[in-house]
Structures are given as C-alpha cells and as structure tokens.
Design brief:
6 strands, alpha+beta, 4 helices
C-alpha cells in the first residue's frame, strides 16, 4: 500500500481529462468509451477547473507490479468499461497503475474509500500484473490468438 499526498484538483482533473479525451476520440480502439450525458458534465468540470467532490467521478488506483521481482508494470492499456450491479466505471492503465473512474453514483465502496480525497490523500493498493486480467490480454496478443481488443 502506498499513501501519498497530491494536489487534489490537478490530480483528479488529469484523470478525468484522460477519460474525457477517450470518450470524444474517433479512434476505433476507444469506441467502447461511451460517456453519454457524463461527457458534458466532464467537459464543464475540466473547462472550469472544478474537480467536484471526491465521490463525484471518484478516481482510485491499483499499482501493477511483477510477482517475480516487484518491478512496476511498464505498459499502457485502452480504457475498459465495467458495469457491475448497475454501476459503471472505466479503468485505464498508465503510469504503472490501473486508474479507475467511477461514473455512477453510489456503490463500489472499496474503490470510493481508496479514491483521492479533497485534502489530496491518496491510497494506492497493489496487485501482481500476472494475477490481473491484463495478463490474459497480453498473453492472447503475444500468442496471436486475439487482436487488440476494442473496449
């Protein structure tokens, strides 16, 4: 577990901007990012520099590292949409971390507890990338069994 102190506004807005940019992109790899009415809300938050409250579009991270030697995961991944129990989130892998943005209100209490807080407190948990779903994707691509997925 890593505990950090970051600038709340800057940190959160960077992650919201990454998701927003994926949502408005015309790239086929990003076609699965469908923000719907959240697109305009995110646009306004970004344009006005308003990161919102911590639980509004909560941002949490999971550091990915090697099971063998502890080195950090050195890859980026396209955003993936996840719907569980009627709640939507997007996860994106960059900066050695899976970043999760919770789109829906309520639920996902663990992720919300780990989300960046207004005072800049951020708790990052970790997971070996070999035990993460990204491992199966990488193996499929490496072995030529599947094309790069479109989210």
């Amino acid at each position: 577990m890593i505990q950090a102190k970051v600038d709340y506004s800057t940190f959160k807005l960077i992650h919201l901007l990454n998701l927003f940019r994926a949502g408005i992109s015309g790239l086929p790899e990003l076609a699965g990012v469908k923000l719907g009415p959240h697109e305009n809300v995110l646009r306004q938050m970004i344009l006005t520099g308003d990161p919102g409250e911590p639980q509004q579009y909560a941002v949490a991270g999971l550091v990915l590292f090697s099971l063998q030697d502890g080195t950090l995961f050195q890859a980026n991944g396209y955003p993936k949409r996840d719907v569980r129990g009627g709640r939507t989130s997007y996860s994106m892998i960059y900066l050695n971390t899976e970043w999760i943005v919770l789109i829906s209100e309520g639920g996902a209490e663990k992720a919300r507890r780990l989300a960046i807080q207004r005072d800049g407190a951020l708790i990052l948990t970790g997971q070996p990338w070999q035990l993460h779903p990204v491992h199966d994707e990488m193996m499929s691509r490496t072995l030529g069994k599947a094309p790069f997925p479109s989210p």
